[in-house]
Amino acid sequence: MTKLPILTASSTEEWINCALRAWLPSEASVAGPAAIVGTRFHKLVEGAIAAQQWVTLDPLDECFETPLRNTLEWMSRTVPQGTLLVEQAYELWPLGGYYTVPGQREPHWRDAMSCRRLDKVGHRDYPNVEGRIYGTADLVVVDGTMAHVIDWKTGKRSDAHTSQLKTLALMVAEAEGVGHVKASAVYVNLQSGKVTEQTIVLDQFDLHMHAGAIVSLSKRLLQKETPDPNPGKYCFFCPAVGCPEKLRTNR
Fold first, then answer.
1. Please, what sign has the CA dihedral across residues 194, 39, 165, 170?
2. What mean pLDDT do residues 111-137 have?
3. What share of the chain is helix, strand, coil (3-state, %, to 5)?
4. What pLDDT does residue 167 have?
5. Are 118 and 150 in contact (CB under 8 A)?
6. Do 134 and 89 contact (CB within 8 A), yes or no?
């Protein structure tokens, strides 16, 4: 049986639209100055939320004071009370796989979606095991049968974040046993301190629909070694050198 590749929630927009992209290895990238600054801000927000109080800023971090205060103020106004899971990583088993029945030639499909939390220690070093989808939510607030998923963003607003939020919401729904998830990409301008949000609310039907898209992709990935490319707006950034030249002209 063909095993599924390792996928991440942050790249959902790419692999959900092109099965070929799912098979390509993730390219190691060197973090630029903007990414380093964004990571530092994430750590400050994480520390303040985990401690549930204002953190003492180092002299080098004083430039983050206004955006950090505005971010925590946004959270106090918007996020309900509940169980806080800070920097929580999840591991999702895609729905099912093929199995054979003695005496029958055609394989059968078995549904088996499950998701679990990953340990906090080293959770960003995703284990090198095939057939998983991984994702890390910056903050999850669980309140009864509902949950709020938050991902802090210090870059530009992007439609791709909607697909990422849907996958994170599906992971939280499965792992935490909730039926409704509110997912927010919270954009923090580190220069002005302005905080804006992109929020989607998913009920059980919405979660089922997104799970269905992942089921469809999983089946296509398992049915053949090399899926056909699906040309689109992300082709320009795709390292798939095996694409037909006529598709590459659309980049």
1. negative
2. 67
3. 40, 25, 40
4. 96
5. no
6. yes
Residues 211-239 as b or e (16 or more Cβ within 10 Å = b): bebbbebbbebbeeeebebebeebbeebe
- Crossing angle of the two packed helices 33-51 and 65-78, in degrees rounded to 10: 50
CB 229 within 8 A of CB 15: no
CA-to-CA distance for 142 and 131, rounded, in angstroms?
27
227 neighbors 240 (Cβ within 8 angstroms): no
Within the chain, what is the greatest distance between any pair of CA atoms? 71
| Distance between CA atoms of residues 117 and 231, nearest Å | 34
3-state secondary structure of 65: helix
- Say which residue the tokens 């927000």 belong to: 45
pLDDT digits (tens, 9 = 90+) for 125-158: 444 444 578 899 999 999 988 999 999 999 888 8
Neighbour tally for 63: CB within 10 Å: 14
| pLDDT reported for residue 247 | 47
pLDDT, tens digit (0-9, with 9 covering 90-100), for 224-237: 656 667 777 767 66
pTM: 0.82
Please give the CATH topology (third level) of the domain spanning 7-248: Lambda Exonuclease; Chain A (3.90.320)
* 3-class state of residue 170 by DSSP: helix
Tokens of 216: 């469809």
Q: Give the per-residue pLDDT at 26.
A: 62
